[in-house]
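Revision sheet: structure tokens.
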Amino acid sequence: MKPVIIEVALNGACKKVRNPNVPVSPDEIVADALRCMEAGAQSVHNHIEDQRLTGAAAADRYLEAWRPIHAANPDVLLCPTITIGETIEERQSHVEELAKSGLMKFGPLDPGSVNLTGSGGLQNGIPTGSIVYSHGYPDCAFILEQLERHRLAANISIFDASFLRAALAFQEAGRLRHGNLVKLYFGGDYSIADGTPNPLTFGFRPTRKALEAYLEMLEGSGLCWIVNVYGGDVVKSGLARMALELGGHVRVGLEDYAGDRTPSNLELVEEVVELAQQVGRPIASCREAAEMMSITAAAPA
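Predicted:
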């Protein structure tokens, strides 16, 4: 049976006021990442406290946690998020610096635009408080060139079908030459920010038919795919089991999780490991995960 890849997304918009288990400082991120890696996670994704930091300042803050994580296992797959900035050059400037460190094997690619919001707080029937998360094709071209120049694999977020169609076009054009991980985001029923009921208005709901629709699009592409539920529970929803039974992989973590409990990242990873055992699939090593993602080389030091 194909080994299972587990990506753990440690923090994101989740704050300690909602879940005291979320790691924020570099020391907390290191400790949490090492626990999750020991349990079976091969890929670690995290945010830094201040998303307004760019360039070397942001990279230095990432590296405070990444250096000890990488020292514990040089094969670990580390990936940052995209920062806040007026231009794509600003938003990706920390990736440029992190790539030079040699610790990063893949970088973020979000190939599309979406309204990030839930259906709560309606005014005249329209959701309020939405964030327009936008990457036009010129932005994607900049990111793809950056990934190519540093020989980085693409960690690709798929918020809806248009994102996946773009990723498939990039794949067909030979623009994902150094590896890939396609993250299929499904929309849950809770706000990530405060955990209150607030069904999301983007993406498919976590159902078998929705997953099958994505898999039909992915058929024959060779792209490595992983599922998660943003604003929900990927295991409780049944989506994780569906993905594992169909040969896919799972992303968990407090960046995505929302529900009626306050788990730790370690607990969420352990739940996927237990589910994989029930399905009869082993957990991949970091090197096996890299091979399945077709990662060809680490970024140059």
